[in-house]
């Protein structure tokens, strides 16, 4: 009798725990452990589906709003092909997005101010220094230690502000030198990029201007090389690769072809890159980034914020728990969050095969959008 009871107890084991008990256990585990729990057996997988969440760190997200400063925040995930709508607003009416660093978003308002917003709490963290009598086209943040404001119309001007040891910002310091804009027409959609402690500004034809903070009074200097990309493109976006190389995503008209080139800093010429290997590029916003991914269907891809149809919207809270961020649906939501999705509605280009996943025609751009990376803290 005792042997039979022991055998029955052993047979039941962990896999037969009541669903409500499993849900309570899952509620006390880190979100990143849930996929492993779901792989144990069908019963545990079902319990995991009753605790739905979508990791916010899994890939970069496209933050977009219908109207900057007033509408609710939406994050598009190219992995899940869903929009996650958060009730918080950007709370800065009439402000325009500048740049992002991790969970922090910089926005520029009409009253000559730059705001720093915490995207997780929704709080307005601080108001950064007023502008020095000029209208910035670009704002670049260096890990919140330095701030650069660039004007690239008619002249190329730059101002910098530095955070002091007392955690306050110095006043803007405007550089003296201002090259003629006609000498180098900045690519209108690409932010200047910090690379090896220098700030690079990309021209429409592939030429570069460079700024050295140690020689601040000189402002931007236009380089003799590189001369151009060697081909025509409609849009071009500058980024620094994971290997510390200066690269450009160059897009022909209507996405007919997408080129990736890197700067050979010995010869100062652009060289073609044929493969991203296990990496992914997210571009065509004021933030262009390259990220390593473990998802095969996203490797060697370039994603642009253009959609064939508006993705499904899930109303969520953006929740921080044990150092992890996740989108948690507001209403009971039974969905299998662990299955890899088959396809997306976002336009993408596979660099290795030199072709888009779908035709560019019929896509619609997401206005007021920027790629943000909650995995970059």
TrEMBL record:
SMART domains: FBOX (SM00256). Transmembrane segments: none annotated. Residues 17-57 form the F-box domain. InterPro entries: F-box-like_dom_sf (IPR036047), F-box_dom (IPR001810), KIB1-4_b-propeller (IPR005174). Pfam families: Beta-prop_KIB1-4, F-box-like. SUPFAM superfamilies: F-box domain (SSF81383). CDD domains: F-box_SF (cd09917). It comes from the Eukaryota. This is F-box domain-containing protein. The lineage of its organism: Eukaryota, Viridiplantae, Streptophyta, Embryophyta, Tracheophyta.
